[in-house]
Amino acid sequence: GASPEAAFTKTVKPYLTTDCNGCHNAKNKQANLDLEQYKTIESVRADLKVWRKVAWKLDMADMPPEKSPQPPASIGRTVLKWINAELDKAPAAGK
Fold this sequence. Notes:
The protein is an all-alpha fold. It is built from 4 helices and no strands.
């Protein structure tokens, strides 16, 4: 498989741009959440509390909302798997 960094660049970041940042950006901040700010894997790793919530919303199929265009389910599962792998690697203090 690809490295976490490569997977972030190839899959996660484009998913955020296409399917999340329209509502969760610095201007709109739906649910008080700006995902647009996460441009690097380091920025994700520095804020795992937010990413636990993102993972939960993806896992429950709450995001993207029904009224929004839906990405292929396989991409959502890939992004969720990537987020969970990052969360699993986090030191206990970061969880």
